[in-house]
Amino acid sequence: MKMKIDVNDLFHDAKSNDTYVKVCAPMVRYSKVQFRTLVKNYGVDLCFTPMILADSFCQNEKARTNEFITTVNDSPLVVQFAANNVDDFLDATKLIYSYADGVDLNCGCPQRWAMKDGYGCALLSQPELIHSLLRTVRNNFPSNFSVSVKIRILHELKKTITMCQQLEKCGIDFMTVHGRTPVQKSGDMINVDSLREVCKSVRIPVIANGGIKTLDDADQLHKTVKCSGVMAASAILSNPSLFSGSNKTPLSCIRLWMNMKDKSEDRITFQCYHHHLVFMLEKILTKKQKQEFNNLGTFENVDIFLKRYVLNSYDYNISHNINCDIDDYVTCHFDDKITTKHSSKCRGCSKSVCYCICDKYDQNATTGNYFSSFVINNDGIEYMDSNIFDE
Asked: What's the number of CA atoms in the CB half-sphere (13 Å) around residue 10?
């Protein structure tokens, strides 16, 4: 059986202890189960999966196999989906419900391909659709299964606060707020003032994201903005022990990563294994050694390199408190009734055939209510989308 944890308890316990929840961000290609297991040995309280496309997850068995792998103790775990319609988001959540502790809607990805297809930050201009996505999923699952959203701040503070208050009304358990706008780059300073005002304006927990390089950074951000959690992304790739206070990847962490590969070589790709080490060794290898390491192409050659240039040169004793083994993998059984519905796509709208009506929201037709819009069907007839008002 997969262990389950109520994510809400994490925030409650952290608040009781005058601290914050330490979170490993959803990172495409990198937030796999092996890495999640690794960072939980170094102070991480909550992990997200990589962002998963909900429609592909529902439609494609290979996508389900590649994108979602978990173990019996891979908890607390939140699965993050990118979705642009309620049917995909709800059905994808139903598929993973038994194997996760919560689901998160990505409204913060600024990449062009995601924006073009109506995912990520593109949703921020469609608040009625976000409301429908979150409210529908929240109404279909018990309260101990968290529903959350990850967003970026908007250029105007007032609009950011209004958006976050509207999101809270969707019934979500918490939100993650990235302190940069959709057009800002990773090197830009985060807007601490906006994050602080957001935390003051809502009653649900807020995880602050952006600009975290060290544990001191995380502590300071928590102190400054009064957030309930702090999320690290790129920095935790370079140093999985970030939340334990180390300033660079300890050698025990390298050894542990190797052990996990040995226990699950059929479950981890060479690219994933090697790329993580490229990040982890950034502050350890010389420039010449980095060039050699980056050109290695097999598990065996990587391990030979590590034993020759890294592990033999340092004391890498592993603490008795660290779990050196990957836990038993869970065989996920996904509901055939759901996956069958998504087995064929409509050529017109690219949705699953069973959900296709080729209707589109008319964003310019509205009653003036914030969460309202009309739909135009193929006959050109307008009608109100009642799902938006499902409270």
From this structure: 29
pLDDT at 240 over 50: yes
Residue 305 tokens, joined: 């390199």
Distance, CA of 280 to CA of 237 (rounded, Å)? 7
Count Cα neighbours of 286 within 13 Å in the Cβ-side half-sphere: 3
> 315 pLDDT exceeds 60?
no
Stated pTM of the model: 0.86
Nearest-angstrom CA–CA distance, 195 and 112? 25
**For residue 81, what are its two tokens?**
């989906």
Q: Are strands 52-53 and 360-362 parallel, antiparallel or unpaired?
A: unpaired
DSSP strand pairing (360-362 vs 102-107):
unpaired
Distance separating alpha carbons of residues 343 and 7, to the nearest angstrom: 32
pLDDT given for residue 2 in this prediction = 78
**What SS3 string covers 31-58?**
CCHHHHHHHHHHCCCEEECCCEEHHHHH
Name the residue with tokens 């105007």. 156
The values of phi and psi at residue 267, to 5°, are -110, -5
pLDDT digits (tens, 9 = 90+) for 25-53: 999 889 999 999 999 999 999 999 999 99
8 Å CB contact between 281 and 258: no
- Catalytic residue positions, numbered: 109
| pLDDT above 80: residue 319 | no
The pLDDT value recorded for residue 186 is 80
Separation CA 181–CA 190 (nearest Å): 9
Q: How much of the chain is helix, strand and coil, in % rounded to 5?
A: 45, 15, 40
Q: Can you give the pLDDT at residue 366?
A: 58
